Amino acid sequence: MNKEGFCYHTPVLFDESLNGLQIVPSGVYIDVTFGGGGHSSGILNRLGDAGHLYGFDQDGDTEAYIPSDPRFTFVRSNFRYLSNFMRYHGVAAVDGIFADLGVSSHHFDEASRGFSFRFNGSLDMRMNNRKGTTAAEILNTFPEERLAYIFHNYGELTIAKRLAAQIVASRVDRPIQTIEGFLEILNPYIRKDKEKKILARAFQALRIQTNDELEALSALLRQSVKILKPGGRFVIITYHSLEDRMVKNFFRTGNFEGKIEQDFYGNRISPLRPVNTKVITPSMEEVNVNPRARSAKLRIGERL
Question: What average pLDDT does range 133-145 have in this prediction?
């Protein structure tokens, strides 16, 4: 089993992630974003017979990549339920947690999943396509104020209010069901010199809401404190500023606001410490081979 054996997507910052985990051969690890198993394969290659890896993923498509390895356990779930499932498996503490928060190339390349503006297809965007509210349902049912909030806060779009108003007006006569239908609404608000940037942000905002991504991330970060052993590593790859800010603040201060709390003696109170004060980014060589890596940022936290 090796990273070349997987075709689901190319793992980003592969060596940097594994090195950051400081894998102990007999240790217990969790890959909370199993995907196509790229990073998991690397972790397993560094584990001995006594080591074990748990892989989480809510997407049914990933089950085709589950390795036949007694040292691996697959958990079909969103990582926001990490503590519950580790308790179910009788695991009290682990040596490391890994997360790659990006959307895989598999999702972007499957028109039926609705993640990419490059295709036409149903506007789904659910990571777990067996349950939950689709992106189309959000566009067709959410009130105007809520839609404006989503596009402003999750996509950082200056056109958020106008876009929300147009969505509400358009859906009266014709429900928005497809990528093409959504693009028709977006097009009048797109400057040609910033077309890809605006489209990417609009789709990002809708995807974050569809999958409740920021709430899931906050739940994961809070639970990591309880499940990591002292000295255990949390390696996480983010792809946009909203995620990266949450991770950076939590690793530094133990909260999402970045508010430094101190004890009576002036010592900082935080359950984690950032291992890399400067974020790790891919080399140009990696970006040229794998454009998905362009916006990736890797941070490492260590349990105190």
Answer: 97
